């Protein structure tokens, strides 16, 4: 049982309340025992003093005491003596489990100041105190145990509907009809279950619309784009002007790659992140450019450790790097690019070329917006920096080493 759970909190709250009440009544019962003992002691002392004073007035002698519990004594002046709560004329001293009482004589001339009584020496009073104390503490212990068990039962019963509701919500499947337990109840739990049902059903509708949109984009847009690319590649004579043909090819590539990025961001499997090696991703991206355009001369200087890893998704990282490298090919005029990863920053830097020096290949053409989208999905920071001589993109990914330190 978790201490932060509702069941544990109810148990602690009710248990503490019952414990305080039990301790209060236990203390009240102990006080009742003490008061009863004081009343009995006061009555016995009054009887003994009255008997002694009557005999003194008639015989001028002190008769024998009626019990060994009584003794003649002067008025006590010790610090542990004080007036009794039920009789100001009686003094009491309590030490450990024993109590002593004293009352002064009313008649003057007696050879002592009053009568002292030891409660433990008086068998009836001592037996009453012992028996009642045993009964009291036994009843208190039994009441505490019963209170703890009943509190546990009550807390379990109160928390059970909430636990059933939480388990019902947890077991809901995205594609299954929403059935959450507790909607038939007429209390706050029923209201909460109904709210969960309404909200989850609305989310299911939104998920279905998202899946339909992804399906439509994947099937309805990819097919015409592929047909257009194949037609331009197989029958280039359909477009007489080379410039127009290159423009159509670039627009087709841009549209196709934009669709790829949007679909990648929409797919759930691309939102699973882990430690990904950086070097293989960069190698695949650079080899892909050479495979598509072998005529290009493009030098990329990699300042990346072979074992460097970041927290992300391999497919999203490939799209991100492909866009940034292709951007360097276009804007750098094929003069090369520097890619470095150090001190938690992944930097792509390329020189800027004049417009006439740029090759016809323009890269993916996603733009800064889609690049930011990819970086934000992986919880990376990204910064674009441009000067007259170079264009720089600074990524701040989550490093695998940092994640390992936090996990420890």
From TrEMBL:
A GO CC annotation given for this chain: plasma membrane
Keywords noted in UniProt: Kinase, Membrane, Phosphoprotein, Transferase, Transmembrane, Transmembrane helix
InterPro entries associated with the record: HATPase_C_sf, HisK_dim/P_dom, HisK_dim/P_sf, TCS_sensor_his_kinase
Gene3D superfamilies assigned to the protein according to its UniProt record, in alphabetical order: 1.10.287.130, 6.10.340.10
Ranges in coiled-coil conformation: none
Spans through the membrane: 6-25, 131-155
Any one GO molecular-function label of the UniProt entry: phosphorelay sensor kinase activity
EC numbers on record: 2.7.13.3
Residues annotated as domain Signal transduction histidine kinase dimerisation/phosphoacceptor: 209-271
Catalytic activity line of the entry: ATP + protein L-histidine = ADP + protein N-phospho-L-histidine
One Pfam family from the record: HisKA
Name of this chain's protein: histidine kinase
């Amino acid at each position: 049982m978790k201490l932060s759970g509702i069941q544990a909190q109810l148990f602690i709250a009710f248990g503490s309340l019952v414990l305080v009440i039990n301790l209060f009544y236990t203390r009240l019962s102990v006080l009742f025992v003490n008061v009863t003992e004081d009343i009995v002691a006061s009555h016995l002392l009054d009887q003994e003093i009255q008997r002694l004073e009557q005999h003194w007035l008639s015989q001028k002698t002190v008769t024998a005491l009626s019990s060994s519990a009584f003794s003649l004594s002067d008025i006590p002046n010790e610090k542990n003596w004080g007036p009794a709560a039920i009789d100001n004329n009686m003094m009491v001293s309590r030490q450990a489990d024993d109590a002593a009482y004293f009352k002064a004589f009313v008649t003057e001339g007696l050879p002592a100041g009053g009568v002292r009584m030891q409660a433990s020496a008086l068998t009836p009073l001592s037996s009453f105190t012992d028996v009642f104390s045993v009964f009291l503490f036994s009843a208190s212990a039994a009441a505490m145990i019963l209170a703890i068990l009943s509190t546990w039962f009550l807390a379990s019963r109160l928390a059970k509907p909430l636990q059933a509701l939480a388990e019902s919500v947890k077991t809901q499947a995205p594609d299954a009809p929403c059935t959450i337990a507790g909607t038939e109840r007429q209390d706050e739990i029923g209201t909460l279950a109904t709210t969960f049902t309404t909200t989850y059903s609305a989310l299911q509708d939104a998920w279905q619309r998202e899946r339909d949109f992804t399906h439509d984009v994947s099937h309805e847009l990819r097919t015409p784009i592929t047909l257009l690319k194949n037609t331009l590649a197989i029958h280039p004579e359909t477009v007489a002007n080379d410039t127009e043909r290159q423009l159509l090819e670039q627009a087709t590539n841009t549209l196709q790659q934009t669709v790829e990025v949007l679909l990648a961001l929409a797919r759930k499997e691309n939102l699973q992140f882990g430690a990904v090696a950086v070097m293989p991703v960069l190698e695949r991206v650079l080899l892909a450019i050479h495979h598509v355009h072998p005529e290009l001369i493009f030098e990329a200087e990699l300042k990346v450790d072979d074992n460097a890893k970041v927290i992300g998704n391999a497919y999203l990282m490939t799209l991100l790097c492909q866009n940034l490298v292709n951007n360097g090919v276009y804007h750098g005029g094929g003069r090369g690019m520097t890619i470095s990863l150090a001190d938690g920053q992944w930097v792509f830097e390329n020189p800027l070329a004049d417009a006439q020096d740029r090759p016809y290949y323009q890269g993916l053409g996603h733009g800064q917006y889609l690049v930011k989208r990819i970086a934000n999905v992986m919880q990376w920071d990204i910064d674009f920096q441009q000067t007259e001589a170079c264009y720089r993109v600074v990524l701040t990914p989550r490093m695998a080493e940092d994640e390992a330190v936090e996990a420890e």
